Amino acid sequence: MANKKAKEFYHRFLDEAGDTTFFGKGKIPIVGSEGVSKAFIIGMVKFKEPLQPLREKIINLQNEVINDPYFKDIPSIQKKVNSKGYYFHATDDIPEVRKIFFEFINSVNLSFEAVVGRKIYEIFYKKHNSREVEFYADLLSHLLKNKLQIGGKLILNISERGKSTKNKNLLLALRKAKDRFNKKNPDKETVTQVVFNIQSQTKEPLLNIADYLCWSVQRVFERGEVRYYNYIREKISLVIDLYDSSKYEGNKHYYKGKNILTSQNKISPP
User: What is the CA radius of gyration of the chain?
Assistant: First the structure.
């Protein structure tokens, strides 16, 4: 039993940033307009240390924020406390809280990878049949396709997102991942059993980390802002800018190693 892998080896934690919206009322294109993102991002965290102690540390940090008099009258914090309970969420958190949690993330032994889907109408029509759930499934499949040789039972703890995370759509993503794997490796079989475990940010503290990492990548593509990405860059093993065809030659749309994101990765308005 000495070679048995630790529990965290078989768990991944997934969240997203941005939205999958392409149209407003009357089928009016609204990508890039106020409040609508120019890309959608799905990210996956792999922890390399025991999970339960990490959960406890995050809960302790959450309680420190709640009980800190400095944060007592912050509406975004009190609203969560009075609703489903406080949790770290990069979009809502004030800068002081973000700093606390980013510093904590930097202390954790983990790796993160993300797939960025630029919201391109032609691709949405032809590849995703103008369906937001298929857009989600396509991105997710690219995170899964290289996990099918791990073996054992891979548990994907996924942040709940309406119809996109319904079992039918997640199975579509898995099928796409297997198709891509088989096309690239016709002589190999997939040996990983993938299990989907839909979670909420309030019930699974480890998803708070996935949220922050996704958000740091999103800031680069939406605003050209690299300060958060650079701060935790050593934790980010891979970012795939999936539909940036201008970088396909030489796989330069795969950002890893010395090929890092910069402010030049900001997406221009459509």
Answer: 19
CB 96 within 8 A of CB 70: yes
Q: Where would I find the H helices in 19-163?
A: 51-67, 75-81, 95-107, 121-126, 132-144
Q: What is the pLDDT of residues 110-146, one digit of tens each?
A: 999 999 999 999 999 999 999 999 999 999 999 999 9
Nearest by Cα to 76 from 64, 92, 97: 92
Q: Is residue 78 part of a domain?
A: no
Cα distance between residue 22 and residue 24, in whole Å: 7
- Chain centroid offset of residue 174 CA: 17
Look up the CATH number of the domain holding residue 208.
Answer: 3.30.420
Q: Are strands 236-241 and 39-47 parallel, antiparallel or unpaired?
A: unpaired
> What gap in Å lies between CA 147 and CA 181, rounded to an integer?
9
The domain of 254 spans: 7-49+113-265
Is 246 inside a domain boundary?
yes
The tally of domains found in the chain comes to 1
Q: Is 0.85 topped by the overall pTM?
A: yes
pLDDT tens track for 30-77: 998 999 999 999 999 999 999 999 999 999 999 999 999 999 889 989
Q: Is residue 256 part of a domain?
A: yes
pLDDT, tens digit, 9 for 90 and up, residues 206-246? 999 999 999 999 999 999 999 999 999 999 999 999 999 99
**Strands 11-18 and 153-159, bridge-based pairing:** parallel
Q: Is 155 part of any domain?
A: yes
